[in-house]
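Notes for week 9. Today we move from apo structures to complexes. The key idea is that a small molecule is not decoration. When we ask for a structure prediction with zinc ion present, the ligand SMILES becomes part of the input, just like the chain. The input block below holds both the sequence and the ligand string. Read it once before you look at the output, and try to guess where the molecule might sit.
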Amino acid sequence: MRVKSQQNPKTNVLFRLFQLILIGIFVIAGSYQSYGQDKLFTVVIDAGHGGKDSGALGKKSKEKDIVLSVALKVGQELKDKHKDIKVIYTRDKDVFVELHKRGAIANKAHADLFVSIHANSVKSSSAHGTETFVLGVHRNATNLAVAKKENDVILLEENYEKHYDYNPKDPTSIIGLTLMQEDFLDQSIRLAKLTEKNYSTSKQLRSRGIKQAGLIVLHQTYMPSILTEIGFLSNRKEEAYLRSDKGQQKITKSIVDAIVTYKHELDQIKASVEYNKAKDESEIIAGVVFKVQISTGSKALATKPYNFKGLQPIERQKTGNHYKYYYGKTSDYKAAKRFKTRARAKGYKDAFIVAFKNGKKISVREALKKT
Ligand SMILES: [Zn+2]
């Protein structure tokens, strides 16, 4: 699949809206249960290949070394500047890691994103640019070729037949889109799009777009996942750029910024879902103040929590030669009910809600009357 980079603005807005709605549905559906206040947003950074598997070969460099260097830079940048993001590597040194283990690492960590970093190579030395994949059925021979090259890694694994339903020796064997990844497709595409957009701000990089292919490593994960090809080692100029500090910095920043933007968008959606939930749980009565009367007495007690079983805020009101004590103060009737429940739980068994309008006590029934 290919998402055109030049859409007209209207289509873009609609597409964006559609995405937000979809993401919203996923949030509500609880797909993000794992990413809560108690768990940091977790990103798995997967440097492709490693050890006995060199990956693509350039004139001077191996894919496994270039992508490890970039992966470590991405991880370091996230760790240094984004303390609200946890980073997990599938490898942080030159070792061979089987494809199914990479996915397992991410799944076990209940990661929120999986980002696999690779570099391309083809026979033609003129091909250049970046492309970012999400899982899917390859629609054309070029995408199939990339998938085949990345998937062939499993031939180096022992017992690969046991771990995958895919036979690398059979060209008709394809990796389907799992239901899980189908659920995450829009989010994966969003991250892929952000990544490619960031790459394309560099003069040296040309975005070849977002693509879909049956990549085993993406097939293994249970979270939004992308595989990004950061350029062609078979192109001399691009290889030099990918080897350079400047090139690696640019690619690192592109990936990091995409992750951070993605998370930021997600946080905003989550906040609005929370807000709407909170709104449903309130019943604001304009112009009315509810309080919970917890006790009366002839003594003027200090309105400190220790005098009222820890409750606060407390107000004292003198009526005649008695004092009334109120707990809580709100225009939200539902909040007032929660105050009452809390007061009763603390031992004020007869606590009840009272309502005031313009400082004058009115009945709760009157206060709740629709005007
Ligand atoms: Zn690769």
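Confidence is low (pLDDT under 50) at residues 1-9, 27-34.
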